[in-house]
Design brief:
This protein has ten helices and 15 strands. It has 330 residues and is an alpha+beta fold. Helix 1 runs antiparallel to helix 2, helix 3 runs antiparallel to helix 4 and helix 4 packs antiparallel against helix 5. InterPro entries: TPR-like_helical_dom_sf (IPR011990).
């Protein structure tokens, strides 16, 4: 087979040595040094799609999306198969980060994903509606797995109220990687569903809605649920962190973990806060646990509305409800 008038052959020893060394440096976070080696490898074997795939991957790690798109397009131009190559997935992520929607659409189709529907107007994102999934926020730090709605293969809208340590808010859209690290299972009506856990790459669209923490006195679960429903009716969210968050070690978080209840809807399915070296699950109140009236609750609502929501919740049943210590945390 000839590519650019050159007989294709196995990559040279120098190419393999440079590439292997580069990925060792990437594992150590030495992206600049790795980039020099991968550029050298591409100069040695420019006909090899892997040369450009590796560079595109490095630029993705660095969040250099212009370079990732350029290298990714060179990689796919050299592919020997038309559908399903991971090179196209990297192109799709870079195009999504850059809001290059025609290229993103082309990339997902070339990868072999279902047709996204009618082409969007110029400047509008794809709307593929891929259902629910989980995303690991801050994967390199104190990671937190939250539930979200997949807008397309590279973006998830966060539907839980993340803990303040994540630096993320309810309603934000995050760009995520394509290879899942872990799964969550939910059971509803006797049916078990499996959801992938993707790692966040970066924030794609911020939310202007702040996160608050408040201590509730809720005599029953129904009292707690009433606040969640009231917030949802107002177009915002409340989440009982006392029962919705469980502590997992990193190993557990990246494996298949049951969510014990629910159907993949954020307010009813536990999300995870991962702390390296700690056993799990810990601190999660599952079905059948004794009810404690004191609850730590997360609220996602504007400052102009949050106190009115809480006061309205109490006013509906003043004998069984109370709140205190409201604080904006993110």
């Amino acid at each position: 087979m000839r590519i650019f008038n050159r007989v294709r052959q196995r990559p040279s020893t120098d190419w393999r040595l440079a590439t292997n060394r580069a990925f060792t440096l990437i594992d150590d976070g030495r992206y600049e040094d790795a980039g020099a080696l991968l550029t050298r490898a591409a100069d040695l074997e420019p006909w090899l799609s892997e040369s450009w795939f590796n560079l595109a991957l490095l630029h993705k790690f660095r969040h250099d999306w212009e370079q990732a798109r350029t290298a990714g397009l060179r990689a796919v131009a050299l592919l020997e198969k038309d559908v399903g190559a991971p090179d196209w997935w990297n192109v799709g992520i870079a195009a999504t980060a850059l809001q290059d929607w025609p290229l993103a659409r082309r990339a997902w189709q070339a990868y072999g994903l279902p047709e996204p529907g009618a082409a969007p107007a110029t400047g509008e994102p794809l709307g593929m509606g891929l259902g629910g999934a989980a995303v690991r926020l801050s994967p390199e730090g104190e990671a937190e797995v939250v539930w979200g709605r997949r807008l397309d293969p590279a973006r998830i809208e966060v539907q839980n109220i993340p803990l303040p340590s994540s630096g993320r808010r309810w309603g934000e859209v995050v760009l995520h990687d394509g290879v899942p690290h872990g799964e969550r299972t939910t059971t509803s009506g006797g049916r078990t569903s499996v959801f992938p856990v993707f790692d966040e790459i970066e924030l794609w669209a911020p939310s202007s809605v702040p996160t608050w923490v408040v201590l509730l006195e809720a005599a029953t679960e129904a009292d707690r649920d009433a606040l969640e429903h009231l917030a949802a009716e107002a177009g915002y969210a409340a989440e009982d962190w006392s029962s919705s968050v469980r502590l997992l070690c990193r190993s557990c978080s990246e494996s298949r973990m049951p969510s014990e209840e629910g159907d993949g809807e954020a307010q009813h399915d536990p999300h995870d806060h991962s702390v390296p070296g700690r056993p799990g699950p810990l601190g999660h109140t599952g079905p059948g646990s004794a009810w404690s009236p004191e609850r730590e609750c997360g609220l996602a609502a504007p400052a102009s509305l949050v106190r009115g929501l809480l006061d309205g919740w109490v006013a509906d049943s003043p004998d069984t409800r109370e709140w205190r210590d409201l604080e904006e945390v993110c």
